[in-house]
């Protein structure tokens, strides 16, 4: 959420920053801007809207200089217009910021009382004003930045440049991610490794509270107390090539097609492909003694957690509490020390989930995180990280990370069940073999795209859509409804099919398509009754089912997508794929911006 970057070196900074912003655009696309130092003078270009607008501005008026900072914005305070676009430049200082300065109102009042005049509605401008005020009183850039940082409350990743100080950038991180990239005679700052990958050879992830002074040939890192510290530098993973669209129309389309590979790679990471034994990292505590698992996450990751709850309770017989992270953290749940706090996050940076992590930590829970970005803040703050192998997910709507999360949760379920004696060797073997069969079943889903497209035509015409599922397929209905809302802007709600008769059934008429997730598992008959109830009231049934289910649904469902029959345990993983493809196909018909839907951004680093 908001992407920032900085370049200090020997090459013209602006094109490097622009390309880094392209790679960060998934984090926000309300406006963008770049500021550079040109012979000691701050020069900047900003534009509302997507980066293409900034590109046009830069083409007309290029920026010179080898030191610069850039920003792509997801608006929090102030409309997404040019005036509120970053970088914010005041006097001798220009600043880009990801996060929220929570005490900006009191700081602003104080600065206004000092005679300072503000030119934006943002919280960020107080940072530029504060630093400039201190410098106007004689402080050096370093002193002014250090003292200003001490005044800030809230979450921030910052990059700052200073007039008359070519070759200097100061960065800071507090609750929002920031990394340093090392080049030859040039240094970089970026919100994530994707931004820095093609630029830098090594990367250092800053710790919370760190601030950093960059010149073309030096990096000095200080901790919150102002002590010089060393942070490990890692070789930059070769991910730059992995972030192209590979000929697909959208990142989302590419990422949907990656489901089979991602499931396969993730399973091989958590289950030994030769011995077929679950091979998770050492937990450092006994899975048998865990009194309760408290699961939390946001959005799609939360729906993955919901599936995990069904599995952990039914198969491993462990009590599970679950809530969205933004609620859990304010619920003050009474937790037994020694319980497991289980977090799920693609990015590992989601502010709500991070805040829940800290609550769980304070309540003496063992923190286990299922993450795609293991070097993220959550990765570093967890006792155990269970990595999924989804690769970079650029489409703002999550797809492949979801099935990767489920793959890890499946392995964790087997491990816990075996440890607790609720899953015996033969059941474990059966579960593992059905999991290893999944990548090829997942690949078969793409042979059904023509049927999904027929369904999409019906959904695209609707104003409201209902999604129904039961048991482990209820979270898949939630995921389908969320994906449809996010990228096609069609209103969709998901219900546990059995709940329909308790209220939502009154919504049904011929204009509200009902998408049902109905594999022929133990709950099929119950789901079928719920479908019949809806059909009897004029509902148009669109069903995702398997061959056995299709025989029972024929004549009832107006449109069906028939998937291969799989073990009930893995059905939610398989059924996710066509449900996400449906949302994609509807968005294509609606002509929306699939990869960057309105109002959204990935990696939600504000609460
Ligand atoms: C939905 C989506 C979001 C994320 C949520 C959590 O398509 O992308 O709902 O799942 O913001 O993000 P992570 O997993 O990064 O914590």
TrEMBL record:
UniProt KW keywords: Aminotransferase, Cytoplasm, Glutamine amidotransferase, Repeat, Transferase
One GO MF term attached to the UniProt entry: glutamine-fructose-6-phosphate transaminase (isomerizing) activity
Cite the HAMAP family for this sequence: GlmS
Specify the taxonomic lineage.
Bacteria, Pseudomonadati, Pseudomonadota, Alphaproteobacteria, Acetobacterales
Q: Where is the active site?
A: 2, 602
Q: Which reaction does it catalyse?
A: D-fructose 6-phosphate + L-glutamine = D-glucosamine 6-phosphate + L-glutamate
Tell me one Pfam family matched here: GATase_6
Q: Which SUPFAM superfamilies does the protein's record reference?
A: N-terminal nucleophile aminohydrolases (Ntn hydrolases) (SSF56235), SIS domain (SSF53697)
Q: Give start and end of each SIS domain.
A: 283-422, 455-597
Q: What does this protein do?
A: Catalyzes the first step in hexosamine metabolism, converting fructose-6P into glucosamine-6P using glutamine as a nitrogen source.
Which protein is depicted?
Glutamine--fructose-6-phosphate aminotransferase [isomerizing]
Q: Which domain of life is it from?
A: Bacteria
- Sequence ranges assigned to domain Glutamine amidotransferase type-2 in this UniProt record: 2-217
PROSITE patterns linked to this entry: GATASE_TYPE_2, SIS
Q: Does the keyword Cytoplasm apply?
A: yes
What compartments host this protein? Cytoplasm
Q: How does it assemble?
A: Homodimer.
Any idea of its EC number?
2.6.1.16
Which NCBIfam families does this UniProt record tie to the protein? glmS, PRK00331.1
Q: Which top-level enzyme class is recorded in the Swiss-Prot or TrEMBL entry?
A: transferase
